[in-house]
Each structure stands twice: as C-alpha cells, then as structure tokens.
Amino acid sequence: MTKTNTGLDYEGRYWHFADDGRMQCDLCPRDCRLNDGQRGACFVRMRAGDRMLLTTYGRSSGFCVDPIEKKPLNQFYPGSSVLSFGTAGCNLACKFCQNWDISKSRDMERLADQASPEMIATAAREAGCKSVAFTYNDPVIFAEYAMDVADACHDQEVRTVAVTAGYVSAQARREFFAKMDATNVDLKAFTDDFYFKLCGARLQPVLDTLIYLKQETDVWLEITTLLIPGKNDSDEELRAAAEWIARELGPDVPLHFTAFHPDFKMTGIEATPAHTLARARRIAIEAGLDHVYTGNVHDRDGGTTFCPNCNAALVVRDWHQILSYRLSDDGHCPDCGASVQGRYERFNGQFGRRRIPVRLRASAA
Fold first, then answer.
1. What is the per-residue pLDDT across 145-179, written as a single tens digit (0 to 9) for each?
2. Among 39, 54, 214, 353, which has the highest number of CB atoms less than 10 A from its own CB?
3. Domains of the chain
C-alpha cells in the first residue's frame, strides 16, 4: 500500500474480483463493478489494473474551524470548536444536495489543500479544536484517509466526528466507526421511495447503520433529517421515523430537523418554513424522543437541550450560539440530578458562531 499526498497512488481497500472479471467495490451497498480505468459512482474510487485507487487521499476541498453545533452535534462537548474538512465526490445522488459543488464535483483541481493525517491533527490541536470532523461530502467514500486522520488525531488527544449518510457496507462500517468518537447520520427520509427516487439509494442500509452504531459501538450518535416540503415532511412519515428511533435506538438519541433551501436539481421547491420544523419537533417529542432540535432557523426552544426528567432548560441556544449553560461537568441536571446522555466536560465558554477558514499545505515533494 502506497500513500501519497496526491492520493493518486493510494491503494484503497474493500474490493474483490467478481466472477465476470470486473473489480467489485465493497465499500458501500452500491457494489460498483469496474473495468480497468473505470471509477465508481462516488467518482473517487478507481480501478487501475489490479489495484483500487482512492484518488482523493491527502487532498481536501478546504478546512474550516466551526462550532460543533454546526455539524450538528448538540450533546458532544457543547460550545467546542471542530476542524472540518471534506474531499470530493459522494456515493449518493441526492437531487437536493446542499453541498453539491463539493460532493458532486468531478474536478479534482478543486482539491487545493493537501495535508497528511499528522498535519491535520496538529492543525486541530494548535487551533484549540476539541475534534476533527469529516464532513461537506460523505467520509465513507474516503474511509481510508479518514481512518488514518483519526489515528493521528487520537495520538494527539483530538476527537473525531463523522458526518455521514450512513450508506456503507458491514465490513467497512465496522472498521470506519471504530475510529470515530461521534457521528451525525443523515436520515434523509423514512421511505424507500424517497431514497430511490431522490437519492439513488435504499433506506434499509441506513437503518442498519443506525442500529449498529447504537447497539454495537460507543460512538456518540445524533441524527439529522433535512425536511423538504411535500417530499418527507408529512405527519405520518415524521411520526413513523420518530417512533422507530425511540423503539430501535432509544429515546435519548438526539434528532435534528433542519430547513431545506432550494439548490442543485430541486430549485423549484420552496424553502422549509419554520412552522414545519416546529411541527416535526412536536410530533417527535410526542413519539417519545427526549432531545429534538431544529436547525437552520432562529428557534430558541428548538435549539435548547432540556432535562429529560424535569424539563429544565440546560443548554439554551439560538442557531449555533449558546446563550446559557447549566449542565454539570459530567452531564447532570443541576435541578433534579438526572443524567443527560452525551459527552461533556467543564464548560469554559464557547467558540460561538464564527467560521474560520484554515489553509494547510503539504511540503513540496
């Protein structure tokens, strides 16, 4: 296995030769079968002779320091900062992609920043970041790079976060999430019809990933659903999703409903109104979920972490800004003593709503 900063010579994992002689990628449920020189649906995994290459290893579309709440993660070291980056490509084909200029990119020249895993970990530590987030596009498709970065981060006591659609095969899922401290999984809808028609994918593999994360790992899990008017926001679908989460994952798993804005191939649909997010939040709470949030809108109640026992407001937010913080250092309610699930430490202020671009450059070869 050869690692380079350009990624062009990095031999990826998760493949086998199929009976017809083609190389089958085993990273995700797409099971792409490739002839020599062909790329998978994600565009970044390519067959070169008898090798599978990850063409984006060591290359990024850019680095930014963000508030952790932007991922969104509200119960993973609230108020902390996170060094965020992605690469290019995606293994889903969402017509409503909100980061389409990155995830749908076929222009490798967009990947201007080159950085080794050690450089990224050091940059995060020197910037005072609690964690590094693999985001903007799905880290599953650059799993080997993300896992190497995660190892380097853990060597420097920096946590790791995967922001993902959870569309990944069982073997890769096990190895990938073993390197992660937290994840936000994008549950795009709760019907297979939506996944097939609007994402070119299937629902069940995502549900399998969610169950695996909750039942077989210690990874901190939060879930996000982008609500698209008329597509995945009916009362029936919202109730079914929330009841499934409460039953299969537990009432303490945070669920975020975020607002859609017209983009990519769905510019003819209106932005999600605030009252839709409020309705979704109410339905999910009635279904038994303890922590339901709204995103991409100003909504103090929808941004607040409440005690699941006495309903006291413990972390009050507006958008990504923390307005008050009352949790104990180990995540207990000061009023009734109930435990609030998550990852916490002593709160010494917040990073705030800033977004700070960071440029990393690898040394010339």
1. 999 999 999 999 999 999 999 999 999 999 999 99
2. 54
3. 60-296+345-358 (3.20.20.70)
